[in-house]
Amino acid sequence: MRPRIAVKNGKVFETIANGVHALVRVLTWVASGALGIMILFVVANVLSRFLFKKPLPGTIEMIELVSVVIVFFSVAYTESKRAHIYVELLVSRLSRRAQAVLASMMYFLAAVFFAVMGWRGGVMAWSYLVPMVRETYVLSIPIAPFLFVVALGSFVLALETLIHVFQPLPDEERKEG
Known about the structure:
mainly alpha, 71% helix, elongated
């Protein structure tokens, strides 16, 4: 006897997908805030150079670290909107069914890749966290939290691409075909 999953109307996939999409939206807001912080750092550095003839120390380090948050917390959003670059040179000549099968296979491989990337990123972050050995050179900011950002962003991207394994074509293309 199979265990029952208590989900309204038996729409387990939709419930999981909605949960992943909600997490993606939260991470996107965090990435947007990080982008605002990056802008403030750049403006402060430019003003410091202009007014005091001296750059702010550690600005490049801060921009590097904030870039990690921006990239890894926003890439799943880009995938959820299917806005990544997609070259259709050969694929467009295939039938709709062949395109869907090929897309599902590619999404599955991408999900596996990003899951492994998240797993290894988490392992590396944990190894850096325990003795707290790695930090930035100028500001001495620990690197481990940013490796956890890489791991979380990669896992969420893996989940988003896994959702696309079961929905390989965008809604517009499914309605057309």
